[in-house]
Amino acid sequence: MKKLHLPTAMLGLTVLLTACPQPDPPQPPKTTPFALTVNLTGVSSAPVKVTNITTNIVLNEGALASGKTFSDLSASTVLKIEPGAVNGYTAPAAQTVTLDANKTVTLEYKAVQAPGNAVKNDSIQGTVTGIPYAGKVVLADFNSFDLKNVGTLSNSGTVGLSLTQVPTYLGQFLPTSVPGCTFTGTASANPNVALFSSLDVLSAQDDLLASITETVIAGASNNSTIARLYSASAATIKGTISCGGVFAIDLTLQAGWNAAVLTPTTSGFSLNNITADIRTQLRGEMYKPSVTAQLPNTALDFTANDTVTVPVSFYQDGAFNGQVSLSTDVPGLTVEPTTLTLPTLSTQSAGAAAYLRGLGLAPQRVTTNLTFRYNGGSAQGSFRLIVKNDANIEVGGGSGTVDARRPGIGLSVYDTYNLVLRPEKTLNINVNAQSMNGFSGDVTFSATDLPAGVTVTPVTKSLSGFTSAPVTLQAAATVAPGTYKITMTAEGKGGVRATTKVDITVPKPGVTLSAPAYSTAAAYQGSESTVSVDVRSIEGFTGATTVTLTDLPAGVSATAKSVNVTPGATTTVQIPIQVTADAPLGTITVRLSSPDLVPGTGTDTVQLTVRPARKFIGTFVNQSARANEGVWISGNSTYNSDTNSYTSAFSRFTVAGEAVSTTLSSSPVNLVTAEGGVVVLSSPSETSSPAVFIDNAGAKTNLPALNVALSAIAEQTDTQGRVWLVRRSSNSSGYVQILAIWTPSTGAVQDVQTLSNTNYTGGRFALSPDGKSAVYLDYDLLKINTVTSTVSPLTRPSMARTAVIANTGTVWTNTYGELIRFNDDGTQTKYNFPGDTLAGFDAKDPTTLWSRSYGSIIKFNTSTGTSITLSFNSIQNALPSPAGGLYVINSEYTMSGSNNYYLSLMK
Q: How many other C-beta atoms are found inside a 10 Å radius of the C-beta of residue 842?
């Protein structure tokens, strides 16, 4: 105890106070504790927040079990109870409680009613809209329905169907014995089952009114439906059935009725067991109004009678009603009455007895007797009863059989495909007749339904088993051309008659059009040309006809030509065509046309090729090389007796015309394109080749002779103005081939390396468009860097024909029908390819590789692997232009026996 130090005065007071008795101080009133109990109904636990609003203290937040009690709460305490959400239930409203005694609050959670219907294995219940009829409800599959289990559809749309009976038809679920069908998976058994995918609504008289599907709206794919499957035994099946489609199965079946989820897939459907959360809705759809007629299973027997009366039932599918007409598809078979009126089905009770009173022979009945009459010959087989509405549109019908085994004649025509009757000519139609059911006697064969101007000569022959006869038709000169369906007839004793239809053709005189054999149709941009057409008379046509070309490509027009045609002869006419300067290049099928053309005769088409504009460059081309603009051409050589030497014409041509012309004192052997002109080599001896440089203006400068024996030489200089070549040299063991570089300005020759080829001849060089790379193809395949003079060997394909190189240094070769690209990683990429000789890469478009064959130019796109081919006449050379595109030199044979040479630039 701590002691207090007090003054003397205060000490006395303290003694006094302690000496006198004192009353107890006042105390606060004692509180009575209360409790709050929270109970739950509908759920055993829920998230509930309980807050003491008086103290602002949260007593509970989170899961709360039923019967929770909160104690020791003062009187007048205010509590707020806030129930939280529970899946599948509706939460009660929040409550506020003031405690003046012990209290209990009950929170009622009500289960949320899921939309739609729950699925049961052995019954279908629900409400359907869209079907304004009451009737029977039965299970249906893709083809029919089953009447063993029958439910009802009420006037209000309520559907009720209990599944208690075994369906009529069961079959094995898994296709163990069906040809072409397989099952992959596992199965504990292969039960006999029946599968139904929908419901059908029938009237009381079994009219097929509507379809109902049990559609899934929750718990599975939104395009799924519920199928009903009866299984004769329990089974677990999981796998895939392939049988005209692919069907995924994952089912555990109980013996009896099962419900399954049927979901369409891109190749078939899947079947799975239902789950507890699946909800469905019944959806109805009326069938298309139609009529189904049910005839007796027995045949209509007309052997002894002309008429047969049988009862026929008419089913008003889709609630069809109104007047219908009746007929058959068998000639001579008619039906009475020819019309019926089908009553309107009651929306309250389809098929009710109200319209069934008085069933009998009156035509206004759903079931009535029909009388069939047959006035034809012997017949056996099926027929169709055709039902049409009042608009004469077929709306249904039924099938039956007819048996009319009467003595008769079977009639047919031999060779019905070539019955042509020409004016003022005759045609024999060979008919065959066969006795039927004991018929014998004379038969007269004739024809009816003949076109005007055609007459027939009947023929009579005795028939006892089989006979044939020619029936002759005679055509007048005035008979109109066309195809006619005539009737061949056979008539015998007792009114026995048989007919059959055949088509005869009276041909129209006219012409056929075709391209002459071995002719080609070609036109050049910015010029005129002709297309040859053979015109031949057929069926006696004579006189004038007009021939023209249609389906022409853009930029091409044609002028029609009139030609006189003589019967028995072919006349060739030239059709002028005009081609614009910008007409697209290519080959297109052009149609030959004439107002007198007989369809289906001749070829009546021709392949027209539009080629680039061309320039005539003479009647002889010896050597050619590309120039900076155009091409260099060496032409004819002439002998000068005074100088005892030859002089050769030498020219530079562009597609616009001749640019320069000069002469050479000897015949050129090699032309090498150089900067500003061309280097020309002649070869008076094996080891000395005089050289001359001709500039673009035609000026000539003599160069030091090339004193080597040439095996191969490049056709252009590299970036340093040098010429790559292969020279040969002999030694004690034979020839040696040496890769070398020649500098024309100095005459210097620099050897690079010895090659493996020891033959007398060499290979071929090709430079890239920029001259920085080269490739040499012989027994070797060499990639050359002309800037550094380094050489890299490549693996040469065994059938390599030519090789080129791109500015990137990528080498390409071709074999017979194949193009090969050498990739940087050592692999090769191959393409199908029609070209014979690779000409080189385009100078402006690095993706274009040019190639040629004897009669075509190929433009190959290296980025897409596709090509465009343009036909030409005899191609002598193809040279890439420095400005882009390809110069093409080709020749055409003339009627005088010489060749004309032309220059074109293809872009």
A: 20
Q: Residue 182: in which H helix or E strand, if any?
A: strand 182-187
> For position 763, what pLDDT does the model report?
92
510-611: CATH topology is Immunoglobulin-like (2.60.40)
Radius of gyration of the chain (CA): 52
Strands 811-815 and 426-436, bridge-based pairing: unpaired
Which residues are bridge partners to 579 per DSSP?
556
Same fold? 34-111, 615-906: no
Q: What is the pLDDT of residue 834?
A: 87
H or E segment and range at residue 19: helix 8-19
Sheet strand arrangement including 734-743: 709-713, 723-731, 734-743, 748-754
Helix (H, G, I), strand (E, B) or coil at 8: helix
Kindly state the DSSP code that residue 420 receives in the 8-state scheme: B
pLDDT tens digits for range 496-526: 889 999 999 999 899 999 998 878 899 999 9
Fill in the DSSP letter of residue 210.
E
Q: In 3-state terms, what secondary structure has residue 10?
A: helix
- Which carries the bigger pLDDT value, residue 348 or residue 89? 89
* Residue 17, H or E segment: helix 8-19
Alpha-carbon span 334 to 130, nearest angstrom: 39
Do 692 and 677 contact (CB within 8 A), yes or no? no
- Among 258-272, 312-326, 682-696, name the one with the lowest average pLDDT: 682-696
Torsion of CA 863, 869, 873, 877, to 10 degrees: 10
Q: Which of 124-128, 224-228, 638-642 has the lowest mean pLDDT?
A: 638-642
- Please return the burial class of 301, using the count of CB atoms within 10 Å of its CB with bins 0-12, 13-18 and 19+: middle
- The size of the chain, in residues, is 907
Work out the pLDDT band at 2, boundaries 50, 70, 90.
Answer: very low
Q: With 60 as the cut, is the pLDDT of residue 852 above it? A: yes
The whole-angstrom separation of Cα 833 and Cα 815 is 9
Could you tell me the two tokens for 215? 């559609």
The full set of domain ranges for the chain reads 34-111, 117-286, 290-344+361-404, 411-506, 510-611, 615-906
Report the C-alpha gap between 329 and 744 in whole angstroms. Answer: 96
CB within 8 Å of 277: residues ≥ 6 apart: 114, 218, 219
- The fold for domain 290-344+361-404 equals Immunoglobulin-like (2.60.40)
CA–CA gap between residue 548 and residue 540 (Å, rounded): 22
Distance between CA atoms of 829 and 329, rounded to whole angstroms?
66
pLDDT digits (tens, 9 = 90+) for 17-46: 233 344 555 555 555 689 999 999 989 999
Cα 548 from chain centre: 36
Cα–Cα distance measured from residue 868 to residue 860, given in angstroms and rounded to the nearest whole number:
7
Which CATH architecture describes the domain 615-906?
7 Propeller (2.130)
**Low-confidence winner among 209-218, 255-264, 284-293, 404-413 (lowest mean pLDDT):** 404-413
Domain covering 34-111 assigned CATH 2.60.40.1140 in the classification: yes
For the record, the structure tokens of 429 come out as 């139609």
- CATH no., domain 411-506: 2.60.40.10
